[in-house]
Every structure is written in C-alpha cells, then in structure tokens.
Amino acid sequence: MVWTNGSSNQRAGGARVLLQTLERDTIECVVRLQFLTTNNKAEYEAVLSGIDLVEATWATLAIVHCNSQVMVKHINSDYEAKGERMKNYLNVLKSKTGDGFSVKFIQILREENEQADCLAKAASAKYTNTTNEVLSFVQYALAIDKLEVQFIPPRTDWTTLVMSYLKDVTLPEDRNAFRRLKVQSPRFAMIGDVLYKRGFSRPYLRFLM
Question: Chain-wide mean pLDDT for the chain?
Fold first, then answer.
C-alpha cells in the first residue's frame, strides 16, 4: 500500500511517499521538487514517485491512498483533466499500468494522510533535514518533461561493477578489484535499475550513465 502527498510554495515543491508491504515493512521517501509547481502537480509527482518505488520492489499491485479529490476524479474519469500539463500527467500515470502491473487509487481524508502531509511540507521547505531511515531525493524537472538524451555506447567501469554486485551479487575475478568493490558498495544503492550514491544527511545522488 502507498500513501502519497504533494505540497508547494513560492520556492519549491515537495512530494512524500510512504510505502508499506504486506509484511508491514515501511519505506519512507521525500522528494524535493526543485522547480516552481502547484499543489495539483506536486500531488501527481508524489504519486508517480510512489508507483516507481513499488515497481522497484517487483510488486504487481499498488494501492495508492491520496487526499487529492481532483486527482482521483481525473483518474476515475469523473472530472476531465484541464490544461496540457494535467492531461500529460494523467497519460503518464495511466501508462504505468499494464504488463502485469496494476494500480488502484483510494481517496482518503487529509486527516488520514497526516504523516505524508507533514513530510511533503518539510520537503518543500527552504532547508530539508531527514533522518537516515528516510530516502531523500532532489528532482529538477517535471516527470512529464521529455529530456533530449544522447545515446552513449555501454561501457565497463567501476559503476558497472558496483551495479552488477548490488543487483546480482556478481563479483570480479581480480582480487584487488574484489577488495575495492567490497569497500565501495556500501556507499551506493540500487533503486530499480538506477544507481544512487548514499548520503548521511543529504539526498541520494543519482548517477547519470
């Protein structure tokens, strides 16, 4: 199950996700939206972040709880999405379902989403402080913005070794490379197929390959 919330102010926006597994394990995630946005857009960003987290756990179903009546009505086709941005968000959200993965949305009262609401507002504050137990990210563009990417042929370097180790526990044959990998790997994390550098009091840093 997923609880999400988004918040915005004059400086930035914040998205907060609380993920709970069937075993009652929880993952908390805060995303600072480093661009001007609105509450409705921040709500969509929070939901998209939550779905990405669920997909990274290889789950087949996400039950999303959010207190945004407008967004839930958009998704259930009770309201028509107005404006190009809102329509794009809706299309991206609907494209997440399929291929063995489904999403169910449940609207809840703001009072029932208090914890997510507090962290979303904290993420949009001027200074963001989180504990080591909370995943923290900074996002610099809307999730619906298309980025021009230049293809670079695959390469084999230290990041490839770290990713292979974190994903499949693949170890290099060279003894010196093995020792370096054992020292480096605790500093990094894999979420889905993306490599991040861990931070103690700062957001996780995404590696651009």
Answer: 76
**pTM of the shown model:** 0.63
Structural domain includes residue 147: no
Same domain for 100 and 57: yes
- Degrees, nearest 5: CA angle 72-125-17: 40
Decide if pLDDT at 209 tops 60: no
Q: Where are the alpha helices (DSSP H) in the chain?
A: 39-56, 69-75, 84-95, 114-123, 158-168, 175-184
- Kindly give the residue spans of alpha helices, DSSP state H, lying in 23-134: 39-56, 69-75, 84-95, 114-123
Query: Are 35 and 138 contacting, i.e. CB atoms less than 8 angstroms apart?
Result: no
Give the structural domain span for 179: 158-206
Of 42, 46, 40, which is closest to residue 83 (Cα–Cα)? 40
What residues have CB less than 8 Å from 79, skipping those under 6 apart? 70, 73
- The answer on 27 and 112 residing in a single domain is yes
Q: Which amino acid is at 26?
A: T
pLDDT digits (tens, 9 = 90+) for 132-159: 567 777 888 888 886 554 444 555 567 7
